[in-house]
Automatic annotation (TrEMBL):
Transmembrane region(s): 20-37, 57-76, 108-127, 139-160, 167-185, 228-249, 261-282
Keyword presence, Lyase: no
UniProt keyword Electron transport present: no
Keywords: Membrane, Transmembrane, Transmembrane helix
Superkingdom in the source lineage: Bacteria
Name of protein: ABC transporter permease
Amino acid sequence: MKIVKPVFRNEGLLLLRNKFLAIPFLINVLCLGYVIISYEIKPIHYEERAAAFYQSFIWMLMLNLLIVGLFAVYMASKDRDNDFEQLVVTYEVKNVDWIIGKWLITQLYGLCITVITIICQAIWFVSAAMTVEEWFKNIFYVFIQMEGAFFLLISVGFLFGILIKSMLAYLSIPAILVLSLLLPFDYTGRANTWDNPKFHLLTPFDYMFVGSPYEGIWGIHHVFKSSILHQSAVVLLGIVVIVVTLLLFRRHRRSNKEKKMLPIMITILIIPTIVLSGMRFVQYNQALEQYIATGQQYAKSFDGDGEYYEWENSYYEYNKDDQPYEFSMEKTDLNVELQADDHINVQSTLNIKNNGNNAVNEVFLTLYHGLEIKECTSEKSVTCSRENDFITLHFDQMIQPGEEIDLDLYYEGKILQYRDDGYIEQAFIKNERLYLPKEAGWYPLIGKRSLVIAREHNNLYPQFELRNARLVEDFPTEFTVNIKRENKKVPFALTIPQIDEEVYQGTSQYGLSLVGGNFKEEKVGNIRVVAHPEVFNGAKAVIERYQKVWSFTEDWLAVSLSPSVVFVMSDNYYYQIHDSVNHDFFVIRSASVDDWDIAYGIINEIYPEISAGYNDDFRIIVDAMEWILMNHLHEQVSFVEWYKSTWWGAEEDLSLVNLLQTYEENGHDQFKDVVKFLCDYWKGLENKQDFDMKDALKQYEGELKS
């Protein structure tokens, strides 16, 4: 091993003389500098510094892996390629000394790239809204991701550089990267049939997340522990690969000691590599199996009636939670104890009212099936039975119309639910983060409710597509929630306001969603806003624009839109729930929202059945509504000019658009009135596909004349 140092020093001097090898350093500095400067010069930030960093980090890491991998092949094969090998074979140098010296200088080169990235990250994150512990955790996360990946790829580069005695050795690096990284690059959270998500573990850095490892108010906590496990296995595998390389390099030059020690080292190292890899596999496999079990429990198959594509397009519309229930949850008192191992204990007192016209002796509740009922009592004699998520309360006495009953329900269990092939934790209770959305069924809901809606999907790996249900309450509920927890440092927020240290109280028709993480809560007008501290100003700007349109639309269409609370969530969670929220709860992303997004979202909230009753005539009405809302935010060109520039195809007949334009030319007030009339007319049709704008306008003109 004495020769390792001279080899390392000599290769280091050669490396310093090669000016081209400084180019990757310069590229990294320029790219990171661009990300930082472009973020900091913005007057309003809609996303966190960490979010902006990790969006670029993944792409830069892939480029760096390619560069470092090719450099490793070069270091392993350069003596042969430049005919220096004929002289090298005369050296009395052991395989270990010769290869390890070159391997170490290559690892140092990769480490320099890592250090540059970490220095830029560390300096930038000093100004981020995170604790010192989170700051260190982010730096260590980037270090293990980069160094683990470099460590393995450099070893693989040496192996192929020695095995393949041609330029094909260089092609092995991009081939490996394409095979291991581009296959998981379909990360929309839904793997196709041919793409087993378990194979996504076979990557040089831990890539088992959707889009970005960063999750807004929860940072990188979700991926941190699994990444350490994954990268520990990767580092051990890198050592195994370089030892195998030593074993294969010039057998006639191996010493007796090397012949004995190298196989022993390989055997010893393979054991912890397999153990750590197995632990990481089991960790993800449990999440995937739980996700698949959830989908199989709820998924429904196509029964063969009609066309499959029609069933596919309308399935979620037909299965939305919009059936009224005669009972209401008048009052819900919850005493909640949260435990860090995803367990929850709840003592609930429910006040239930019969709003129907008939006396009944059965009442239905919905509660997540993973929560075990320990006690179910009432002043009236009651027995409880259960089937999956549905609880049936059997009363000995009839419950009369208008009568209210009290029920005490004690339950406990584990809440850890997954979405998107097990990549996303849908509901969880951790020390540093917490999320219990209403759709997790963590507290009793009135009626038989589907917490999840799923349908078969033959083109996806699990054979189904799964979404959160849209749970709409018919009546508001008065809530009182007492929450006990061990970690009181993490801020909590509910969809009802906090009145004391551990007490939340309020009336909500949406229900309860509980979140805990790195956020601050303030009011924007009359709306409570829960957002990461760095994006609060951006969220405030977006919500003020929403408020402007909400107020305008409420006056125009006589609907209720303004929520009492807004949660600002990362993309993964926003996409899970943005179609399910309603009434006094609203969710936005950590991103800028343009006028069209606001207008389109509000229209779909007002008329969620649009997709089921969409014909060409009504499509123009929807476009007119969008134009009116956008015009209220910022003055637009005339409706017909806007339509031409936005939607018009060269062969489209504009007669109906021009017909509507005549009303707009008479003034915005009349245009709003006629569009409102047309919407109400469409809404009153039994078969909405029969909507005819000309017939509707004739009725409108008739009402004006009368």
